[in-house]
Amino acid sequence: MARREKVWSQERKSVLWSVIMIVIGGISTSAQARNDIPLSFVATASDPATAPAITGKDWRFVLGGGIGYGPVYEGSSTYAPTALPAFEINWRDRVIFDYQGLHGNLLKDKHLTMGFDLGYDLGRQESDDYDHLRGYGDIEPAVTMGMHFSYGFDYLKVDASFTQAVSDNSNANVTAVGVSSGMRFKTRTLIVARFGTEFANESYMDKFFRIDAAASARTGQPEYNPEYGIKDGTIDLSIIQPIGDHWALTGLAQYKRMVGPAAESPIVADPNQFFGGVTLGYTF
């Protein structure tokens, strides 16, 4: 019979860290137009227990990838397969460079992690789903800055992040909060689940979900001016199976329910969003 252990204990193998970082770095923006990485995996990876130091090494490297299947933009009813490439360069769990950008942990101990993020948002192109997005115009990529926080208990962890676009005039930002927990078995299989939500300011809602007069004339849809509010709720699940001391195989899934002003936009074809994938990672 499987024995439950403290998921956030300090005895976690480095292989678990490798696959979680594969997930962080790997979900392609062709599946989620705004680089919407499932936050359960981000939250898990930031935990000091799931990222133990490799004895005698200041540097850690992750290579791997896989395949996923999900909506072609946030709110799309069209799904497509996508590659899940990944890489990570990690210095003492303090400075991390990966597919999402540069991250720094200014405070990090057994329970608490706080730091900054420098990344990017790929925006959205009409070509992502031309049948539905034609006439709404392209959303240009943007550099983003933000901060992250997490606090882990024995079987539970809370996390929060704030992300702000800084290279355009949109002033768009998103605040995300969540709670995650996990279970590990004698087979070394680790199951992690997270429940979360995102709050978007009015500028973000305008950037991705507004229909102005020009777009209304091009598409025939009524003008729509969303307000700030809760954008979605998510349930994330990852199942991680170590293979030897360096490799690990992970299955991952996310259900997102878009709500409020975002879900009411005609740009959103389906408020129910699903993503699934499989990755293989190697840590050295």
Descriptive tags:
alpha+beta, disordered N terminus, 15% helix, twelve-stranded antiparallel barrel, 284 residues, globular, 13 strands
Q: Can you put this structure into words, describing what you see?
A:
Helix 1 packs antiparallel against helix 2 (39-45). It is globular, with a radius of gyration of 19 Å. It has six helices and 13 strands. The protein has 284 residues and is of the alpha+beta class. It has helices spanning 14-26, 39-45, 130-133, 202-209, 213-219, 260-264, and strands at 59-71, 79-83, 86-91, 95-98, 101-108, 112-121, 142-152, 157-165, 173-184, 190-200, 229-243, 247-258, 272-283. The longest helix has 13 residues, at 14-26. Strands 1-3-4-5-6-7-8-9-10-11-12-13 form a twelve-stranded antiparallel β-barrel. Residues 1-55 have low confidence and may be disordered.
